[in-house]
Amino acid sequence: MTGTSEARRSQGVDQVAAGLVACLPVLNRHLKQSIDRHLPYPNLPERQLALLQYVAEHDGATVHEAAEALRMVPNNVSALVTRLTEAGLLERRQDDTDKRVAHLRVTATARQRIGEVENFAAAQLASALRTLTEGDRAALGSALGALEALTRRLRDHSA
Q1: Quick count: other Cβ atoms within 10 Å of Cβ 90?
Q2: By three-state DSSP, how is residue 101 classified?
Q3: With b meaning 16 or more CB within 10 Å and e meaning fewer, what string describes 42-58?
């Protein structure tokens, strides 16, 4: 009996994993396309956007820290920093004690744009959520904590 219940549980895990793999990219792609169509900013390549978001969450991070967190080569991150600095979205500040180290900060313009994008995405999701049944909204709300825990586990596991 134990083997059967474990097999059922495993099948359930596999089904949930397959469902998430199918749904999450579609959700993300729809939000990104909607943002791209409605906001007046030029589209940033995925890696530039990832770097900008990382620095927004880790003010003062170094190129090395960002490269490690984003699993990128430091030279590539340095090139992205140059592009984002030229675009007025990122600032480099030299370390007071080690002049070879630069600390990164998003500019006020970048912070404003990030906030606008997050607000727009949240409004798009809220609009779609309102079309669901109360039960579906409650189920999604209940799943948020588990999704956040899953995200942390994936980050920790792949580190």
Answers
A1: 23
A2: coil
A3: eebeeebbbbbbbbbee
Tokens 């396309």 appear where? 33
User: How many CB atoms sit inside 10 A of residue 84's CB?
Assistant: 23
Beta strands in 1-157 (DSSP E): 90-94, 102-106
Q: How far is CA 43 from the centre of its chain?
A: 16
HEC sequence for 18-31: HHHHHHHHHHHHHH
- pLDDT tens for 59-80 read 999 999 999 999 999 999 999 9
The Cα 49–Cα 47 span in angstroms is 5
Instruction: Supply the pTM of this predicted model.
Output: 0.74
Q: How far is CA 14 from CA 21, 63, 102, in A?
A: 10, 38, 44
Runs of H (alpha helix) within the chain: 2-38, 46-57, 63-70, 74-86, 108-130, 134-158
pLDDT of residue 149: 93
pLDDT tens string 86-122? 999 999 999 889 888 889 999 999 999 988 988 999 9
Calpha distance 92→95 (Å, rounded): 9
The answer to whether the beta carbons of residues 80 and 48 sit under 8 Å apart is yes
Q: Is 154 helix (H, G, I), strand (E, B) or coil?
A: helix
C-beta separation of 35 from 121 below 8 A: yes
